[in-house]
Amino acid sequence: MGVEQILDMDTIKQTIKQKLLIDRLKLEDITAEEITDDLILFGEGLGLDSVEAFEVMVGMEELYGVMVEQIPADELKIHLKNVQSIAELIMASQQKGTEGL
Fold it and tell me: What is the pTM of this model?
C-alpha cells in the first residue's frame, strides 16, 4: 500500500483538501479551492470534530501509509492543525520511509 514515488508538497495539499477532507468527510458546503493551507481544521475555522479527526488519520494511513499511533496526542494535535501541517507530516513520513533505499 506504500507510495512508490515521493509526491511534491502541492500535490499532497491538493489531495488532502479533496480526498481527505471533502470526499472522505462528505463536506458539501465548501470546495478545495476555499480551503486555504493555513485554515484551522478543528474547532474554529473549518469546524471539524474528533470523529472527523479520526477519519482524517485513517485516510492518511490509507492514502499515504502514515501511521499516527506512535505520535503523542499533543503532538498529533499540532500535526492535524491545518492542511500545511498535515502535508508536512506526510512529507516527513515519506522521507523517513525512503532513507533506507
Answer: 0.87
SS3 42: strand
Considering only CA atoms, which of 70, 101, 100 is closest in space to residue 89? 70
* pLDDT tens digit at each of 101 positions of the chain: 444 445 799 999 999 999 999 999 999 999 999 999 999 999 889 999 999 999 999 999 999 999 998 899 999 999 999 999 999 999 998 887 655 44
Q: With respect to residue 1, please indicate whether it lies within any of the assigned structural domains.
A: no
DSSP letters, 20-31, are IIIITTT--S--
Burial of 17 (0-12, 13-18, 19+ CB in 10 A): buried
Q: What is the CATH number of the domain that holds 55?
A: 1.10.1200.10
Is 68 part of any domain?
yes
Helix (H, G, I), strand (E, B) or coil at 48: strand
Q: Which of 66, 50, 51 is nearest to 16 (CA)?
A: 66
